[in-house]
Amino acid sequence: MLIIGIAGGSGSGKTTVVNKIAANCGSNSVTIIPQDAYYKDKGDLPDEEKRAINFDHPSSIEFPLLVKHLDMLKKGRPIEMPIYSYITCARSKETVTVYPTEVVIVEGILILSNPQLRKRLDIKVFVDADGDDRLMRIIRRDIHERNRTYEQALSHYADWVKPMHEQFIEPTKRYADIIVPQGGENEKAIGIISSHLNRYMQKAKEER
Predict the structure, then answer these.
(1) Cα–Cα distances in Å, from 166 out to 9, 19, 50, 100, 117?
(2) pTM for the whole thing?
(3) Helix (H, G, I), strand (E, B), or coil: what is residue 99?
(4) Helix (H), strand (E) at residue 90
(5) Dihedral sign (CA 72, 74, 80, 84)
(6) Contacts for 25 with CB less than 8 Å, ≥ 6 apart
(7) Which of 122, 136, 138, 167 is the most buried (most CB within 10 A)?
(8) What Gene3D superfamilies does the record point to (predicted)?
(9) Alpha-carbon distance 7 to 108, whole Å?
């Protein structure tokens, strides 16, 4: 099993990169583990406190569970991945059963910030994008997916996203084996990564 970590700032195009790689490699051979599924359950908080949750701080992620799940997949065991809702700030009672595959992609803004998680990553990728482009994507996402107004999205970016990016996310670029500029629009970089994974999977198939 090859475990790939794909990090980068909020709105950098990580999800697009991940989806294109998975499509190039065959969805049956690739498992995607989103960091967002491992946000800590805060469903019991009042609405006012929920709106103040800092989703861009490493402490918001239950890293021990994510690391445990990766170790289980590496050993060939299925996991029960949480389902998290940004609307309720809580985990669902249901989970998603995830089975081991040849390639596992862990995707999220903070995955390179945790030393124990980094040790599990065979290849570390950082998706880079211009700050203005990221801001536009963040505003659109917050309005359409997280029930925020334009003013709330802009305020959240200024108060939390930007300072956390500068403190916890941008510095993790130094851990990356590969940096992908221009996000999901960088077809050459995506093609190179996909080709490497396909070669790995073909070799693994031949050795079985």
Answers:
(1) 9, 26, 23, 34, 20
(2) 0.89
(3) coil
(4) strand 90-98
(5) positive
(6) 103, 194, 197, 198, 201
(7) 138
(8) P-loop containing nucleotide triphosphate hydrolases
(9) 5
pLDDT tens profile 60-103 = 999 999 999 999 999 999 999 999 988 888 899 999 999 999 99
* Per-residue tokens: 201: 């999977």
How confident is the model at residue 144, as a pLDDT? 81
Question: Token pair of 132, please?
Answer: 């203005």
Residues in the chain: 208
List of residues 6+ apart from 61 with CB closer than 8 A? 35, 38, 39, 40, 108, 110, 114
Q: What is the mean pLDDT of the chain?
A: 90
Amino acid identity, position 104 = V
The two tokens of residue 183 are 């996000």
Predicted local confidence at residue 146, as pLDDT: 73
**CB 189, CB 180: distance < 8 Å:** yes
Nearest-Å Rg of the Cα atoms of the chain is: 17
Please report which confidence band the pLDDT of residue 134 belongs to, taking 50, 70 and 90 as the band edges. Answer: confident
Contacts of 28 (CB under 8 A, 6+ apart): 101
For residues 60 and 39, the answer to whether their CB atoms sit within 8 Å is: yes
Sheet holding 30-34, edge to edge: 30-34, 103-107, 2-8, 123-127, 178-180
pLDDT score, position 30: 92
